[in-house]
Write a structure and sequence with these properties.
alpha/beta; eleven-stranded mixed beta sheet; two-stranded parallel sheet
């Protein structure tokens, strides 16, 4: 494992060098920290490497929201195994472009600028988890020719369906994302399975075999296999399948309870009628 801390102010301000591009290549496993305070952010180019984790992305905070005078940090990753953005908190605009990177992960990060773009092309896996996006615009996150796209437990300023755009993606999973300020759903509390509430209720009335069958059906409905290019269609399909499964279970149980209560009423009525006829004959 290797660690690299780049304080670009030393090169630009102290030494007087001009740095337009920082190129990192042929690293087997690198932890990279980027301190770009007091300088114009250069382009970061990472190529022909194994795994690179970026855990620090510091920059000046001036004109963060209105874009006036702000600089864009461009991170390009090409021909890699893993690019991992871990708990970064950039306050300026960031553009990440990953091409031919097998796995791209973004976790625990905070993005404050409205100029955020995450683009992944030709990848096996693209995951965004437990992150905060304060001012994204539509289609700020794009995935093309990716086998598996997972966007889970994030906060966005707009609906996640509008944020994520996919094309030629085999599997898309959107779950437990919410608008900033909204409470966390009970099913999304850490450690709780999205179907746990329904299954615990079913287990009180049905045998283990039936409950496990419903478990498999609901777990399958949380993921969608995609051949289309429209993320809205895929996301709506996912929600529709989950909702249909839940509504079907509830309707079925309501019908069973209604039939059972009707049966009890009929039996009670007949028993009472026989008792009255018996007393009359006596």
């Amino acid at each position: 494992n290797s660690f690299l801390l780049l304080r670009l102010a030393y090169n630009v301000v102290d030494i007087g060098q001009k740095v337009d591009v920082v190129e990192i290549t042929s690293c087997a496993d690198l932890l990279l920290s980027l301190d770009m305070k007091n300088v114009k952010p250069p382009q970061i180019l990472i190529s022909s490497s194994g795994g690179v984790t970026i855990d620090l992305l510091e920059m000046d905070a001036r004109s963060t929201l209105d874009g006036e005078g702000s600089s864009v940090t461009q991170i390009r990753a090409v021909n890699m195994e893993v690019l991992y953005l871990r708990e970064i908190k950039p306050v300026q605009a960031v553009q990440v472009n990953a091409t031919n990177v097998k796995k791209v992960l973004v976790t625990g990060s905070t993005f404050l600028s409205p100029n955020i773009n995450l683009e992944v092309l030709n990848s096996t896996s693209f995951e965004i988890r437990n992150s905060y996006f304060r001012a994204l615009t539509s289609k700020s996150i794009q995935a093309t020719s990716v086998d598996d796209v997972t966007v889970v437990n994030n906060q966005f300023n707009i609906n996640a369906i509008k944020v994520v755009s996919v094309r030629d993606v085999k599997k898309l999973h959107l779950s437990c994302n919410r608008i900033i300020g909204e409470p966390v759903d009970v099913e999304c509390v850490q450690g709780a399975h999205p179907t746990s509430t329904v299954l615990s209720f079913l287990s009180q009335f049905y045998n283990r075999e039936f409950t496990e069958k419903v478990t498999r059906n609901l777990e399958t409905s949380t993921s969608v296999n995609l051949n289309s290019t429209n993320v809205q269609q895929a996301s709506l399909l996912q929600l529709e399948v989950s909702n249909q499964a839940f509504v079907g279970i509830m309707v079925g149980m309501s019908l069973i309870i209604a039939v059972f209560l009707t049966y009890l009423l009929i039996i009670g009525y007949r028993c009472r009628r026989r008792g009255n006829m018996k007393r009359t004959s006596d």
